[in-house]
Amino acid sequence: MEENKKKYWQANLKIIFSLLLVWFLASFGFGILFSESLDEIQFGGFKLGFWFAQQGSIYVFVVIIFLYVWLMKRLDRKFSLLDKS
Amino acid sequence: MTTQFLTYIFVGATFALYIGIALWSRAKSTNDFYVAGKGVNPIANGMATAADWMSAASFLSMAGLIAFLGKDGSVYLMGWTGGYVLLALLLAPYLRKFGKFTVPDFIGERYYSKTARKLAVFCLIFISFTYIAGQMRGVGIVFSRFLEVDINTGVIVGMAIVFFYAVLGGMKGITYTQVAQYCVLIFAYLVPAIFISILMTGEPIPQIGFGSTLVDSQTYLLDKLDQVTKDLGFVAYTENVKSNIDIFCITAALMFGTAGLPHVIVRFFTVPNVAAARLSAGYALIFIALLYTTAPAVSAFARMNLIDSIQDQPYSTSPSWFKNWEEIGLIAWKDKNQDGKIQYSSGEALLKTKPKYLETRGSSGERALENEPDLTNENEIYIDRDIIVLANPEIAQLPGWVVALVAAGGLAAALSTAAGLLLVISSSVSHDLLKKTYMPNITEKQELKYARISAAIAIGIAGIFGIYPPAFVAQVVAFAFGLAAATFFPALFLGIFYKRLNKEGAIAGMIGGLVFTASYIIYFKFMNPATNNSEFWLMGISPEGIGSIGMLLNFFLALAISSVTSPPPQEISEMVDEIRSP
């Protein structure tokens, strides 16, 4: 039981960590640090770095949270199944 | 029908709706009053969170700020949305599992200390009042411009409405009113944005119009805007002026501050379970993103339109919105070269920046100014950034009902946020200070009574802020986010993810973060504003961004002091285990 909780927590931390990596890249990475280099790429009427700073990062944030909801639901299900057995 | 008449109808109808909801959802217990009985549907809670979060600043000021800041304005867009990722992944589910009423509640119990609880209440009240002052100013602006009533009357009407549903309904009343307010405000924001997008680019979706070509032209809107702003002596619209490190720190301070704001966190206490808290954060961000991805498009349209409609226009034939806002004192024109035409370019028009009007008129009929012109540049106009969203429908010559709708939306945004803030103030007083600290023997009924009384007092104080706005309102917005990032975020995050953190560490961290951030802001904003520029800033970080350094300091102090003092008791470790499993 204790072992199980520990595994659940480790898996949870892994999910959080990988999603926060995406969060960091989309905003601080593409929107700020590499924004100017990305501006070289034109995307419709946008320069790509500008688009990430004012549009793209926000869309990525929404996707991250829903991905998290889905991954955690799967994780919760997996571990509650193990609890019963 | 005149626009003003329509505005009365729209504002009156929405106010009647809010009162109706308040009557229907009265709070009967402290559980109802503090956390709406923990029975709110995740989608409804998402809408309520969005309305709670999007304040007069998001609705009225943000697009205007970005219109003038260009790419630098991205800090607000990323900062005020990215915090939700932190909230959803790191805080909301665990704090919901903890299952109590307030943020100081968690800090007090996790760090087994009344001192920590009181410190948290102090930070919470300071942050929340700073924030409320801005909402009341928003209410005042909308009332004075669109209903032509005195600002004070406007503030009192707004207070009366909030009083009615916050005191009566507590969190329950506030939640369902906020759902209605979200619908009003998002509709009011999107309708003019869609109209303007069609007018300028032929695209109905503003997010796409933003990246499209202008009507009857092969030129992209943003390319044209870059060109025009450069010609007028500004930095191109899509390029940064601020340094990368400053942008990085401001964005971080806004993100971590958002995640640490008590009135947002407490919304996640109202849903039935942990899974609902996660889902609810996702819905909240969708509802917020709808406005936040529209805002930068509105900014670009507005900047373009503004330049087109006033540049080189004779004052005598300038559009009516220009003169209306001049009457209110948010636009001023100083004819530097005496040619009777309006010239707009980079630089300040006036010395001492804010206009001071004389009773007389200038030679073209404009309001004469006491200020001397700033002759180092050719710019002749002063425009308060707060008016862009409100003036935008008029600038684009949209029909009167759209203008009326925007007024109702602005009020919805300001009132919903004010109510959420008042609630966390009153519950931290009645629950954390009275029930948990000074008057532990009161019954639930008495606690509910005290909660209502403290809500009423808080509304009174907020109203006084609205009627006599402290001159420093705009200056202290940086405070709210910086302090939330430097005090609450580390204490909450470490409380969940680091069992070893003890009360000594948490308290030292919060005090260190608070003192460092507050003194940096006070030094540059109030004591020595002349040196408030990158030459004197610590590593080039502005007071707006310093909260992120305060947060690092908090983390450092908390970890260092914890490691040399005794570990927390066994039951705390068990409590943390408990909140970690859903």
| CATH level-1 class of the largest domain in chain B | Mainly Alpha
General form of chain A: elongated
The ordered H/E elements of chain B are HHHHHHHHHHHHHHEEEEHHHHHHH
CATH superfamily of the largest domain in chain B: Sodium/glucose cotransporter
Rg of chain A, please? 18 Å
Shape of chain B: globular
Compute the number of strand runs of chain B: 4
Strand and helix order of chain A: HHEEH
Helix vs. strand class of chain B = mainly alpha
How many domains of chain B? The number is 2
As residue ranges, the low-confidence spans of chain A are none
Note the main sheet of chain B.
2 strands, antiparallel
Would you write up a description of this structure?
The complex is a heterodimer of chains A (85) and B (582). Chain A has 85 residues and is mainly α. Chain A has helices at residues 2-33, 35-38, 48-84, and strands spanning 42-43, 46-47. The longest helix of chain A is centred in the C-terminal third of the chain and has 37 residues, at 48-84. Chain A is elongated and about 55 Å long. The mean pLDDT of chain A is 87. Chain B has helices spanning 3-24, 30-35, 42-53, 56-69, 74-98, 103-110, 114-146, 151-201, 206-209, 221-231, 244-260, 262-265, 274-310, 320-328, 388-395, 400-438, 444-467, 473-497, 503-527, 546-564, 570-580, and strands at residues 331-333, 357-361, 367-369, 381-383. In chain B, the strands form two sheets. In chain B, strands 1-4 form a two-stranded antiparallel ribbon. A two-stranded antiparallel ribbon of chain B has the order 2-3. In chain B, strand 2 and strand 3 (367-369) form a beta hairpin. Chain B is globular, with a radius of gyration of 24 Å. The model of chain B has no long low-confidence stretch (mean pLDDT 84). The A-B interface holds A 5, 8-9, 12, 16, 19-20, 23, 27-28, 31-33, 35-36, 39, 43-47, 50-51, 53-55, 57-59, 61-62, 64-66, 68-69, 72-73, 76 and B 66, 71, 73-74, 77-78, 81-82, 84-86, 88-90, 93, 207, 210-213, 220-223, 238, 240, 244, 247-248, 251-252, 255, 275, 278-279, 281-282, 285-286, 289, 292-293, 296, 577, 580-582.
